[in-house]
Amino acid sequence: MSVDLPTVKRVAHLARIKLSDEETEGLREELNAILGFVEQLGEVDVTGVEPMTSVTAMRLKARQDEVTDGGKVDDIVANAPASEDHYFLVPKVVE
Amino acid sequence: MTDLTSLTIAEIGDGLSAKKFSALELTGAYVSAIEAANDALNAYVAVTADKALEMAKASDQRIAKDEAGPLEGVPLGIKDLFCTEGVHAQAGSHVLDGFKPHYESTVTANLWADGAVMLGKLNMDEFAMGSSNETSYYGPVISPWRSKGSNAQLVPGGSSGGSAAAVSARLCAGATATDTGGSIRQPAAFTGTVGIKPTYGRCSRWGIIAFASSLDQAGPIARTVKDAAILLKSMASIDPKDSTSADREVPDFPAAVGQSVKGMKIGIPKEYRVEGMPADIEALWQKGIEWYRAAGAEIVDVSLPHTKYALPAYYIVAPAEASSNLARYDGVRYGLRVEGDDIIDMYEKTRAAGFGREVKRRIMIGTYVLSAGYYDAYYLKAQKVRTLIKRDFEEVFEAGVDAILTPATPSAAFGVADEDMNADPVKMYLNDVFTVTVNMAGLPGIAVPAGLDGKGLPLGLQLIGRPFDEAGLFKAAHVIEDAAGSFPPEKWW
User: Fold this and answer.
1) Was domain A5-41 assigned CATH 3.30.450?
2) A90 close contact with B: CB closer than 8 A
3) Chain B residue with minimal CA distance to A16?
4) CATH number of domain containing B254
5) FRET pair for B234, CA 20 to 30 Å: which of B8, B71, B277, B487?
6) Does the interface predicted TM-score (ipTM) exceed 0.90?
7) Does the structure show a pLDDT above 80 at B338?
C-alpha cells in the first residue's frame, strides 16, 4: 500500500497540521518508508488471537462517584495564550 | 575531601548523616558543575538553582531535627516530560512554549516528599520521540563520552538523553526518565549508566506528559544498580489519580541488591542475535552469560519467536496513541498559539509551527493508521501481534525462567547528525529493537553497563523480568555491575 500526495494532504488536515508543498512530498516518502517497514506484520498469523486491550492483568479501577477536585479556575486558565474572565479565547467560530 | 559530585546516592546518605558535608554544600557543588558543563553538553533546559539551594537548606534543617527522608538532600535532575509546579515543563517541544504547570506529577511529588532536591529540567527528544536526543526543540544533548582519540560529538541516546548525559557527567546524583520503547535503557547503555523501566503500572503516569499511554512508564537513570533501586522505591506508588497504577505495595528494592543469584534461571533468547550486530556486543553478551554461570545461576536457551515483529507493531501502536494524545496541543489552553484566518487555520498553523519534524511524522502515521478503512489492517492487527509478543514472554516465564539476558542496544553511541540515521527514519527506529519488546509486553527491563567497545564507548546488557519483579532484576543486575565495574567518562568539558 503506497500513500500518494492527496492522501498525505488529507491526513495532514485530519491531524490539523499545515504542510508546505515541500514538506508534503518529504512526508510522503517517509510515510511510505515506515508503512513499508510495518508491512512485515502481514507474515504473522493472528487467526483467533485477541487484540491486546490491557498490558497487565488488571481490571480498570472504579472510584466513588463524588467530587474530589475543583475550584481551580485561575489555575486552569493560567497558561492560556488568550483568556478573559475565566474563559479561553478562540477566533470566532459562528457567523 | 573528595569531589561531592562523585558520590553515589547511597554514599550521600551516609555522608549527610555523619555530617561530613551539608546538603547545601552538596547541592552547591552540583549547581557549579552544571554551570561549568551545560554550555558544552546541553543536558539541562532549565536550571532551578535558587529553588535547589532552598530545598537543600530545608533538607539540612530536617537532618538537624533527625527527620531525614530516604532521599534527603539528594540532588536530582528531572526529565522535561514531568510536570513540576511553577517550573519549565515543555517536553522538549516548542508547542508548549512558556508552559509552567500549576501542579506536580505524582512521581516528582513522591521524590520531594522523600527529601530529594530538584536541580532543574533535563533535555529530551521532543515528546520523547527519538533515540538520539536530536529532535529536541532545545538542540541535541552532547554525550560526555567520546571515542578514543576523537573529538567528534556523540549522541547520548534518547529520548531521555539529558537524563543519561547528566547522570554520567556528574551533573546530578540521579535522574528521572521515561521509557515508551527504550527511552530509559538505550541512553543508559550509551552513557555507561544504569536505567530501569519498571513494570507498566508500577509508577504513576499522572502529571507526565503523555506520548503513548499504553506503553509509557517512568523510571530512574542512576550511576549504580543500588542507586537505581533507591530511586525507584521512592518514585513508585499506588496512585488513585492514575487508573492504570497497579495496586501493589512497593517492595524494598535496595534490599535486593547484593543478594545471591544462585539457582536463578537466566534465559538467553536466540532471536536477539541479529544480523550485523557488532562482534563487541556479541562478545559482551557471552561474557555476561559467563558471569552468571560463575555466580551460580543456571543458563537456559529460550525462544521468543515474535521478537522481530515488536518494532513494526510498535510503530503502529505508539504513533496511533500519540496522534490522539497530542491532539490537545491546539493553541487554546496552553503553550504556543499562531493566529490564523479562522479557528481551523489557527490550529493548523499552531501545530505546524509548534511540532518538529519527527513529531509531525508520527502524528501523521498515527492519524493514517487510525483513519477510516485502515483501522483493522493496522491498529487491530498490531494489537493482536502485541498479544503474541506478550504470550512469548509468558511461556518462557512459565517454564521457570526468572530473567532474560540480552544486549541493550544493537550498537554503541553514534555521531551527532549521523547521515545514515537522518536519511532513513527506520534506521533510527532500529535502535530500539532489543528494548521495545519489553514495553509491548508491559514488563520490567533494566540496562546495566557491562563494558567498553574497541573505541572505548560503553555497551550495556539488558535484563528482562517477570511482571512486578523489579527486585529480581536489581538482584541480577548487580552481578553484571560487580563483574564489569563502573564507567565514568573522561572529563573533557
Assistant:
1) no
2) yes
3) B348
4) 3.90.1300.10
5) B487
6) yes
7) yes
